[in-house]
Amino acid sequence: MRRPVVALALLAGLRGPAHGRLALFALSLSWLAGTACERALGPLAFLPLAAGALTIALGALVAADRPMSPPSAGILAVALGLLHGAWNGGELLNARSGAVGNALGLATAIFVVVALIAALVASLRASYARIVVRVAGSWIAAAGVFALGWMLRAR
């Protein structure tokens, strides 16, 4: 599973069940919408760079562990879903066979992964466990910096 999906699930879990439920449904549905948009519009060149920047931002938000409102978590989930869904839609265009089934299967897998991770993190009560989650967020942000650097280097 992609790092930003895990980062969003960690962030939603840190913020509590309401954030987790909103992120769960918003991400899965917007991923499908993003896939459909990419298939309709064609390739968009900015997607990899935007996805890398969003990965860094989500990882940093997990590491910071600051309060946020449920709508802002939903906005992050929709942005992530649309960006990565569109990026994934471009790859599905290249596959040409079973694209709809693959898109539905991926959205279902994302739903399950986000549900499990967010629920696990939301159930954590010990302060050291929350620190471990925050460290994981900082590692995701660092991985996003490396990935974005490689993308920019290749251009």
Give the number of DSSP strands: 0
Helical content stands at: over 70%
The main β sheet shows up as:
none
Pick out the low-confidence regions. none
Mean of all residue-level pLDDT scores: 89
Which term fits the overall shape?
globular
What is the helix tally?
Answer: 6
String of helices and strands: HHHHHH
Supply the helix-strand structural class. Answer: mainly alpha
Q: What's the alpha carbon Rg, rounded to whole Å?
A: 15 Å
End-to-end separation: 25 Å
Percent range for β-strand residues: under 5%
Describe this structure in words.
With 155 residues, the chain is mainly α. The protein contains six helices and no strands.
Short description:
The chain is mainly alpha-helical. It is built from 6 helices and no strands.
Give the topology:
Elements: H1 3-15, H2 17-41, H3 47-64, H4 70-95, H5 99-122, H6 127-154
Give the tags.
single chain; 155 residues; mainly alpha; 86% helix; globular
